[in-house]
Structure formats: C-alpha cells, structure tokens
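Box S1 | Example of a co-folding query
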Amino acid sequence: MNPCIFNRAIVRPPSASCVHGLRARDVGAPDFATFVNQHDRYKAALRDQGLEIAELQALEAFPDSVFVEDVALCLPQGAVLLRPGTPSRAGEVKASRDDLARIYADRLHSLQEGHIDGGDIMLTDRELIIGLSSRTNRLGAGALEQIISPWGYRICCAPTPKGVLHFKSDSSYLGDNAVLCTPRLAATGVFDGYDVIETPSGEVGAANALRINDVVFIPSGYPETQRVLSNRGYAVETIDISEAAKLDGGLSCMSLRAFQP
Ligand code: CIR
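Box S1 (continued) | Returned holo structure for citrulline
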C-alpha cells in the first residue's frame, strides 16, 4: 500500500499552554493566536487534499499536545498508542485513548514497554524505520515490532543524529523510493538504496516535509528546497509553521495521517 496516500487525519489544536511547550533552544514562546491560525490553515491544506479531519479537543494540561503525531502510529491494519520518551508528554497517551478507540475500536493496540515518539517513525514502501533518539529506544522498537510485524511490516532501527529531536525532524519520505533528508542524516547510510534528495545548504529545517497524495508540503521559508523539489517534478506547497517551529515541531508532527480502506 502506498504510504503517501491518505484519506483521514487526526489533529489536535494548540492549547493556550503551548507557550510552555518543550524546546531545545529558546527562541521565544509561540504566539497562541498565530499558532491557532496557522493550525487552521494546516487543517485546510490537508482538507484540500481530500482528507477527512477528526479534530480532538485541545488539552490545556499538555503544552505539547498539538504535536499529536508523537502519541500514536496509525496504519491501515490498526493503530498503536505509543509511549513518548519525555515525562511531560506521557499523559497525552491516556488523554488520546478514548478518541482513538472510537476510530479504531478493537484495532487499537498499546505499546507495553520502552519508549517511542511517533516523530521517530518513518514508513516507506519497503520498511518501517524507527529512529533511535533521546525519545525512542530499542526496547520500544522491539515492543512495536511484536505488534506490527504480524501485519507484514519489516522494521529496522536507525540512528538519529546527535542533537536532532526526532528522526523525521531530519527526513521525510516522498514516495516512489525518494527521501528528502539532511546531509547529516544521509551520512549515516540509513537511506542507502533510496533516491536521496539532500536539503540545500542552510535549509535543514525543510527536511520535515509532508507528502500527502499528490502534493509535497514544505514549511515556508525554504526557497532552495522548493526549487529543488519542483525541478524534480513534485507539486510543492508551503505552509507557515513558524509557531510550531519555536517548539521544535514540524509539518508531520501536527497530524496523524491514515488511510482507511
Ligand atoms: C517536544 O519536544 O516533544 C515538542 N516540543 C515537539 C514535538 C515535535 N514532534 C515531532 O517532531 N513529531
């Protein structure tokens, strides 16, 4: 099944508490009103690609809960509630359980041990890559493998470069064996055998792109990446995510995409 084809997405709007969200480097708190507007435009962009959006309630108790990708993995066969690797986000899973159960019913599973943030999971046409990071460990990867290998997924673990939050902070799968990634991640060899498009100089922030159906979304402000991708024949659209970026969030983090036959 093509991993870039989606017909549904789950999103959670930012809460006013987002100003207290985690960040590796403090470049100032996000502006809540701007974040809400940008989130609205993000949803509209997904809808324009034909996705049906399920919008969950904002969670004031969890400043990072807008980054809904980190709490679950959604696959056509079912969904898995993950175990985010930072204590302040652990409770987001419990807060999401009922919502996901409404959608997935008895196809909802839970990781039982270890840790995985969804931002460390990349599904390609040939494998499901789990980036080991400060949030994701081998114990979690092994537990996930037990749940999803019966569904036919081949799993492999790969390093996430030091100082990079998530594997997908530095990479995105573009479909047809092509990957957009930073030179530092490409240098690990994880994408040997893929058609690798490296982010141009000064544009590592564009690596977390989002291929949805016929479009590749990239964050605003990366003209060279836009040019490179357009020249390769991709239909590229930009989305302004300046406020999410202040909390190390990217395009993929703000939705759980799924294909439900
Ligand atoms: C965090 O540190 O958990 C949030 N401030 C950012 C999470 C971004 N999520 C993602 O890349 N999947």
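The longest strand covers residues 128-132. The CA atoms of residues 4 and 212 lie 5 Å apart.
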